[in-house]
Amino acid sequence: MHEEVIIHSGDETTVAKKEEKVGSIDPQELTNQEMENILERLIQKIPDFHMQSKPVKLSGGLLNYVWRIRGGAGSKYPSLIAKWAPPFIASNPQIHLDPGRIIIETNALKTFGKTGSLSHLTNENIRLPEFVWMDTTHNILIMEDVCNCPDLAEWIQYPQENENAYSTGRRIGTFIANVHKYSANQPDLALQFLNQRIQKTRLEVLYQNVEMYAQKAHLEQADDVGKAARVYGKLLQAPGKVIIMGDLWLPSIIVSGDGLRIIDWELAHYGRPSQDIGHLVAHLWMHIHNPPSRSTADNARLILRGFLESYRTTLGKDFDRIFGADGVQESSIHFGSEILARTVGYFQTGYLYEGLAWDHPVIQQATQTAARHILNPAGETTFEILK
């Protein structure tokens, strides 16, 4: 038995046939060879692209499985990236995650693409990858391979001129501020970026676990820390007001010779801007206070300052409408929650604090800082530039 499925390519929509049960793939039962076969069939449908060799599975994907496909002579793209969204976190299959997130990322690539409603916010200095193909049957997105370049977490480990690091932060801040400003109070965008399941998962995985993390770190007032984080997490379940990138941390920012490329938009949603700001600031703070080298800390500090200054300046007279005092306090709570998750929580593994015990001085400094930001969000100075 066969049924019709919709496949999207660029601005075209076509109808294909699929065998029964193909749309309900169990990714834990699929071999690499089977996945390669699926990708090869999809690649054949892409105009002006000729596959040079078999797809190469890339390591390091946290939420999804990712492959690079090299193009042969005459191909429009030198290479493509294929991303498959399973119904769980690829690096932690115990945690369920809505596979529909890949549709959200597709919407982002189109919205900020050359013909999208927010295309005026991007240019070669900073942009998203170009959308190529979407297969809703298998939840596979195929996009431009922006380059085999370092992400920001790698880039800041290299010695940089101060102005280079600072201007990188400013470019990111300007872009995110404009995303928030120009997507505000836009009903069509609110529908395109309706991603409530992701926010529910974030409440369950992050904010509702903050009290447990605080207890694990032996923090005083752990119950108050947890309560404040839960209240914020529940606030994020309400209808939002701007497009949020949703995963704004250093690995989502690729630094190429042509400019910055912002990738991994599957957690994007129509929400509150505090999540974007608190998230990137938390990760830059961690690179400042537990860096692999002094130059890393120096670069992260300059990027952080440039990011906050440019975000505040770009919003200008719209600051109170878009962000305001509430946004500053909310950012502080998300900042603290993210640091606890990365230092003593489920997301310590594979990050800067991996393997460190709760009583290690670096962990103690980070968790106590996190608690202060959650309990006294208006009094902490990390977001002083925004006040």
Keywords:
about 375 residues; alpha+beta; Aminoglycoside 3'-phosphotransferase, Chain: A, domain 2; 7-stranded antiparallel β-sheet; 2 domains; about 40% helix; 3-stranded mixed β-sheet
Give a description of the structure.
42% of the residues lie in helices and 16% in strands. The chain is an alpha+beta fold and 387 residues long. It folds into two domains: 143 residues; 235 residues, Aminoglycoside phosphotransferase (APH), C-terminal lobe (Aminoglycoside 3'-phosphotransferase, Chain: A, domain 2), CATH 3.90.1200.10. It is globular, with a radius of gyration of 21 Å. The N and C termini lie far apart (62 Å). 45% of the residues are buried.
- Total discrete domains: 2
Provide a count of the helices.
Answer: 13
Q: Which percent bin holds the helix content? A: 40-55%
Number of strands: 14
Beta fraction: 15-25%
CATH architectural grouping of the largest domain: Alpha-Beta Complex
The CATH homology group name of the largest domain: Aminoglycoside phosphotransferase (APH), C-terminal lobe
Look up the CATH topology of the largest domain.
Answer: Aminoglycoside 3'-phosphotransferase, Chain: A, domain 2
Low-confidence stretches: 1-25
pLDDT averaged over residues: 90
Largest β sheet strand count, sense and barrel closure: 7 strands, antiparallel
